[in-house]
Amino acid sequence: MPWIVLAVLTALLSWLSLTPAPPKIDHELLGWDKFQHALAYAFLTIAAGRAFHRLPVHSTTTWLSAAVYAALVGGGLEVLQGLSRTGRFADWADLVADLLGILAVLILVSFGRFRASRP
Length: 119
What we know:
74% of the residues lie in helices and 0% in strands. It has helices spanning 2-18, 33-52, 59-83, 92-117. The protein is mostly helical. It has one domain. The longest helix has 26 residues, at 92-117.
């Protein structure tokens, strides 16, 4: 099931990133484009981490792999936006927001592991 969630979330982010007219959210915080990017890629990292957790690798490798996966998806979609003729364009600030969402998950996972290791 985690692999299905990861595939669906990756497909959804791809569609939202490449469609000429993505849906707009009319909310003060949630309507902010960079917050949407950070939140979306945080969820993608979590989904990837949960899916990769099923692989026979160390927990640290799992979460680093999840972060790399999410970063590659984000970077790849920015490149595709730059190459597309749909009226969408690549934006470095979007990629930075994606990376901040990914980093937030890594910090939370590290903090959780630190707390779990304490007596």
